[in-house]
């Protein structure tokens, strides 16, 4: 993948903290082994890497993921904040303070994936009913801005406050029948909120 990225003259790759939360120590050890092997390739090709906290990976929470990115301690390794995972990022904490999580990441977010979502912890956790009870499934959605419960004023205000100048990507895939409408609406809204400097 690194070689293909280089052939395409793309300066950036995104990734997740793959592995399982129930095997976090083993997954993190494998992650570090992979990085040690891949660091020379990234550096040789001049490609940056933005990993993200992702539901059901060994790093699902914002604080832990940002801490791991900082521990990597490479200027070309930064963080991808995926807005539709906002309600998973604080872990067991019932609040999802998007501004606080973004500020905690500081200068590390170099990519933002943007779509709305619902708070699966709301009503207290009864918005989605999963069987069997206790299943470890992770629930999220990716509709257009304004079709969920993310505090978009806080999100965009904080990115502007932090002088975010990274990549902003619409990542809507909720309604196939609205694909054209979403593809027109999302870039227009993102450009309005995060004008190019």
Automatic annotation (TrEMBL):
> The Xylose isomerase-like TIM barrel domain covers which part of the protein?
1-187
Identify the Gene3D superfamilies for this entry: Divalent-metal-dependent TIM barrel enzymes (3.20.20.150)
Q: Provide the leader sequence positions.
A: none
* Entry-linked Pfam families: AP_endonuc_2
Known InterPro entries for this protein?
IolE/XylAMocC-like, Xyl_isomerase-like_sf, Xyl_isomerase-like_TIM-brl
Please state what the protein is called.
Answer: Xylose isomerase-like TIM barrel domain-containing protein
The record lists the organism as: Streptomyces alanosinicus
């Amino acid at each position: 993948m690194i070689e293909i990225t280089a052939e395409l003259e793309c300066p950036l790759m995104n990734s997740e903290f793959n592995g399982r939360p129930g095997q976090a120590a083993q997954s993190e050890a494998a992650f570090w082994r992979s990085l040690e092997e891949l660091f020379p390739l990234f550096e040789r090709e001049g490609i940056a890497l933005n990993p993200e906290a992702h539901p059901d990976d060994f790093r699902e929470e914002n604080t832990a993921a940002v801490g791991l990115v900082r521990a990597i301690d490479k200027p070309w390794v930064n963080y991808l904040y995926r807005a539709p995972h906002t309600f998973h990022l604080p872990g067991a904490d019932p609040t999802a303070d998007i501004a606080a999580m973004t500020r905690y990441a500081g200068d590390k977010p170099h990519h933002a994936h943007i779509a709305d979502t619902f708070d699966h912890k709301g009503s207290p956790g009864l918005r989605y009913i999963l069987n069997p009870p206790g299943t470890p499934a992770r629930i999220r959605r990716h509709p257009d801005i304004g079709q969920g419960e993310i505090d978009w004023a806080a999100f965009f205000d904080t990115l502007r406050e932090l002088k975010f100048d990274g990549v902003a990507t619409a990542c809507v895939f909720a309604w196939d029948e609205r694909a054209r409408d979403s593809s027109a609406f999302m870039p227009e809204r993102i450009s309005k909120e995060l004008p190019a400097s």
